[in-house]
Write a structure and sequence with these properties.
- This protein has an eight-stranded antiparallel beta barrel.
- The chain is 24% helix and 34% strand.
- The protein has two domains: 30 residues; 143 residues, Calycin beta-barrel core domain (Lipocalin), CATH 2.40.128.20.
């Protein structure tokens, strides 16, 4: 077999496979979208963490994780995260959220670093509301990289049917739902 013929065969076999892989990857990335609209005043208040992707900054949290949001100014939202530790103490982190430059209302960024570091882009994390029921009772929050994901509820319990329906919608967005860990409320 000549090298030209071998090269042609390799291209015919590899190129379609590579193109398919790139198309699947691009499609998975394009599925991550925030919800198109959100009424921020309705979103404010307390939310309980039902499940999450494990992350380093919540490594001490073992139960009772809760987030409380409060509008301070039109472009400033106070974020208070609180959780229980294995020793029984509660720890909290006070942060600030603001709209991202995209202008989309459900695409925010949040920081927990001190205010004087707020000018640094690296202290801001992506906070997108990915799914929200019409009654503002159940939400999914994450980021387009699919590295972070939280399922939040206004109550400490969610019906299995509502939870599974939300998880399936997240799977369709390309999230690896096998990484979800349910949060203990006790």
């Amino acid at each position: 077999m000549t090298s030209l013929r071998r090269s042609l065969i390799i291209r015919l076999l590899v190129c379609p496979w590579l193109s398919l892989c790139l198309a699947v990857s691009a499609a998975a990335q394009s599925k991550i979208k925030s919800i198109p609209e959100i009424e921020l005043p309705r979103y404010m208040g307390s939310w309980y963490e039902i499940a999450k992707f494990p992350n380093w900054f919540q490594r001490k949290c073992t139960h009772g994780t809760q987030a409380t949001y409060k509008i301070l100014e039109p472009q400033k939202i106070e974020v208070l995260n609180r959780c229980g530790t294995q020793s029984g103490e509660f720890i909290q982190a006070l942060g600030l959220a603001r709209p991202q430059k995209s202008g989309l209302p459900a695409q925010l960024e949040v920081r927990f670093a001190p205010e004087w570091l707020g000018w640094l882009p690296l202290v801001w994390g992506t906070y997108w509301v990915l799914d929200l029921d019409p009654d503002y009772q159940l939400a999914a929050v994450g980021d387009p990289s699919k590295n972070y994901l939280w399922i939040l509820s206004r109550t400490t319990q969610v019906t299995p049917a509502n939870y599974e329906a939300l998880v399936q919608r997240l799977a369709l967005m390309g999230f690896d739902i096998t990484k979800l860990e349910k949060t203990s409320q006790n």
